[in-house]
Amino acid sequence: MIGGVTCSRRVRSGTTVALAALIAVALAGCKTAGLTDSTGSISASPSSRSEADWRRDGDSLGEKFRADPRNADIAIRYAQALRATGQRAQAAAVLETAALHNPGNKALLGAYGRALADAGSLKQALDVLERAHSPDQPDWRILSVQGAVLDQLGRHEEAQRYYASALKIVPEEPAVLSNLGLSYALSKDLKRAEETLRRASAKAGNDKRVRQNLALVVGLRGRFQEAESIVIADMPPDEAAANVATLRRMLAQKGPAAASALKKTIRARPVQGIEPVEDGGT
């Protein structure tokens, strides 16, 4: 994020670009270990499988789903394969069909809500996610995803209340802390964002996704060399160089370019939820 960006640009551009990377908040995940499109809050990829692998799975599962659209497990797996290959609207449609046959299946509703968020149907996603768990049996992962969706809608104070509820169930869970830290950054409370992300990083061990989020916020606070050192820790030279370049590029954007980066970042990451701690889900 950093060296080479002038002082006058960094503060201004940093705050706006934060929104881009933060909400991807991932809005949470990174299929890759690098910063690539952003860091995040909602998404996270289940594995490092190739697109060809996912397409093969999609072809096979698609046949099974068409033969039995009532099967919730097949629908969830098929939608996962579709999302992994960028077919977000199709994934949501598959899960909608299965949900009509299984209105009380909370795992299915959770997957459907995440797919809707991933496809950009944020308000509908909130409605579905609300039915994916209950006040007497809350699911911390769903609470965290709800918070991530609210962050994408710009409702940061509400989002932070959801993260707080999740943390009551799983204290110091790094995935939730990471989202909460990004939410603070989106609220322009960078000091609190850094403090929270440092807690997340300490709990997450070697997780590069959380470290990327921390590096972004440190860079937004103007400490560029420190941000670079965080993002490249334990990385091979070629990967480290690519991550530093991405970080600098993100922090250098401002105005319309930053707004465009924000939209691209949010759309770039599949929304599966928050995996115990990036571009995949919980």
Describe this structure in words.
With 282 residues, the chain is an all-alpha fold. The protein has helices at 7-23, 51-67, 72-84, 88-101, 106-118, 122-130, 140-152, 156-169, 174-186, 190-204, 208-220, 224-231, 237-252, 255-268. α9 (174-186) runs antiparallel to α10 (190-204) and α9 (174-186) runs parallel beside α11 (208-220). Residues 1-46 and 262-282 have low confidence and may be disordered.
Order of helices and strands: HHHHHHHHHHHHHH
What is the mean pLDDT? 77
**Biggest sheet, open or closed, and with what strands and sense?**
none
First-last Cα distance: 27 Å
Oligomeric state of shown chains: single chain
What level of helicity do the residues show? 55-70%
Note the total helix count: 14
* Percent strand: under 5%
β-strand number: 0
In short:
By secondary structure, the chain is an all-alpha fold. It has helices at residues 7-23, 51-67, 72-84, 88-101, 106-118, 122-130, 140-152, 156-169, 174-186, 190-204, 208-220, 224-231, 237-252, 255-268.
Q: What structural keywords apply?
A:
282 residues
Topology:
Elements (H helix, E strand, L loop, with lengths): L6 H17 L27 H17 L4 H13 L3 H14 L4 H13 L3 H9 L9 H13 L3 H14 L4 H13 L3 H15 L3 H13 L3 H8 L5 H16 L2 H14 L14
Helix pairs in contact: 1-9, 1-11, 1-14, 2-3, 3-4, 3-5, 4-5, 5-6, 6-7, 7-8, 7-9, 8-9, 9-10, 9-11, 10-11, 11-12
